[in-house]
Write a structure and sequence with these properties.
By secondary structure, the chain is mainly β. The protein has seven helices and 23 strands. The N terminus is likely disordered.
């Protein structure tokens, strides 16, 4: 059942079909157009080849089906490029025992966001964004999270990790206008997540109530360019299928705004899959391999590969370096997800 006036009632098939016709109108609402005859600003230059390539009109280019236009971060109130690196370390104070207390405030609220140009989604958010703040601390820190429910439905926060039962965010339902304080010692080190655990669970997660939770080891990992990415999807017509896929919410954002890294720079990607309605998501990076640390709870990599699969709530830390300058794609290795928004570019510079 759709929420009239909030989500655009299009199917994922309609969204893909629009790439072939260049534009579509569904129910009188303009669909974000996917056209094969133009390359949006900030994307890859046309591949050199025949006459069509010279004008950037190659319909076979992997960039050809991207939504026309861009999503203004001011409209959403958050910028996916900023989400990559805006880790929230809370407000630290020193405890009597010499340990560190980190305090955070998280507010749940209803908010309409734009997940692709012209495609609106009636989200439920933590701190006005999807994903919510990337909470970060160190193993052994005392974590205190003041949760305020300013939304229209009951919500909670369930943190992955180890903590007492009454801090688990399952039975302690927080009604609208109420609040709850979660407090526990951060363990184990690694990459975790948090999300609402109120029923119906698939709805509360899919609507946007999730975020990253990073617990650093007591001895720091090697210095690196660190990036946070949450793989997510959006069912814009409530048919149980996602019409839009993305990393950090906005389809094709990192294709239109490539992520700059340096040659031989160690990159550390904190990657989480929260996609609802699909049993698995994935990542593939081009022209390179990465060390994969499953859940990040070990300092020894589990695999050296260029593709990894993740069920919902599975996550991993990916570390890699690029030897050569240039522009390299990264995307889901499910082609449909790529064509519906889960695709980006690393721009490697000297």
């Amino acid at each position: 059942m759709s929420e009239k006036g909030k989500e655009i009632p299009i199917s994922r098939r309609d969204f893909l079909k629009a790439s072939a016709v260049g534009a579509a109108l569904v129910g009188g609402v303009g669909l974000a157009r996917l056209r094969p005859d133009a390359s949006p600003a900030g994307t890859l230059p046309p591949t050199q080849g025949g006459p069509d390539h010279e004008h950037g009109h190659d319909p076979h280019s992997p960039m050809a089906n991207m939504a026309v236009g861009d999503v203004d971060p001011a409209v959403n109130g958050f910028d996916p490029s900023a989400i990559l690196t805006d880790f929230d370390y809370g407000v630290p104070t020193t405890l009597p025992n010499g340990g560190t207390l980190r305090e955070y405030t998280v507010v749940a609220a209803d908010k309409e966001i734009e997940v692709a140009p012209g495609v609106k989604f009636a989200a439920w958010t933590y701190n006005g964004r999807v994903p919510g703040p990337t909470i970060r601390c160190r193993e052994g820190d005392r974590v205190r999270v003041r949760f305020i429910n300013a939304g229209s439905h009951p919500h909670t926060i369930h943190f992955h990790g180890i903590h007492p039962a009454n801090m688990d965010g399952v039975f302690e339902i927080v009604d609208p206008g109420k609040e709850f304080v979660y407090e526990f010692d951060a363990e184990p080190f690694g990459l975790h997540l948090y999300h609402c655990h109120t029923l119906p669970l698939k709805r509360h997660i899919h609507k946007g109530l999730y975020g990253g939770f990073i617990i650093d080891p007591k001895v720091d990992r090697p210095p690196a360019r660190e990036l946070f990415m949450m793989m997510n999807g959006f069912d814009t017509n409530f048919d149980g299928e996602n019409e839009v896929y993305a990393v950090n919410t906005v389809a094709f954002h990192y294709a239109k705004h490539p992520i700059q890294i340096k040659v031989n720079e160690l990159v550390r990607m904190y990657l989480i899959n929260i996609t609802e309605f699909d049993p698995i998501n994935s990542i593939h990076i081009h022209a390179n391999f990465f060390n994969l640390y499953r859940t990040g709870t070990s300092l020894t990599p589990d695999a050296f590969t260029d593709t990894a699969m993740f069920a919902q709530a599975e996550r991993g830390i990916l570390e890699f370096k690029y030897k050569f300058p240039g522009r390299y794609m990264f995307h889901a290795h499910v082609s449909e997800f790529t064509e519906l928004g889960w695709m980006g570019i690393f721009e490697v510079v000297e």
